Amino acid sequence: MAFLTPVRRLRGSVVYSYDRSGYLTGRSGQMYDHDRYYYDKAGNLLDNEGQGAVMSNRLPGCGRDRYGYNEWGELTTRRDQQLEWNAQGQLTRVISGNTETHYGYDALGRRIRKATYGRHTGHTARSRTDFVWEGFRL
């Protein structure tokens, strides 16, 4: 089983920790408080104080982060981010501060484009990545 450990992002590194069973038990980094995750004996995620059970598959929040979901269960708000999805359940746009990122897909549902824009600076892309597929290989 592979575990996600340090992740380097533009806003700093994030470190994840796991227990012997492979459950995520913590997250820490420059942009985060140290968050702890607790589970009951059946492996169900408890709230971050380890007291109450999360009764749906929609985690309402963790630490200072609060999450919002649409009627299909897709994440729509997270801290200062807004996420938009299309009818196929594909992420199409993320708004975060002064940045807006758009995602494009081909007819087979594979992501083929990611373009990031300054929100109030017009429609000139700050960066753009085009993905090329050969069959099912990226």
From TrEMBL:
Keywords for the protein's UniProt record, in alphabetical order: Repeat
Matches recorded under Pfam families: TEN_YD-shell
Transmembrane segments: none
Domain Teneurin-like YD-shell: 11-118
InterPro entries assigned: T6SS_VgrG/RHS, TEN-like_YD-shell, YD
Stated name of the protein: RHS repeat protein
Organism the protein comes from: Salmonella thompson
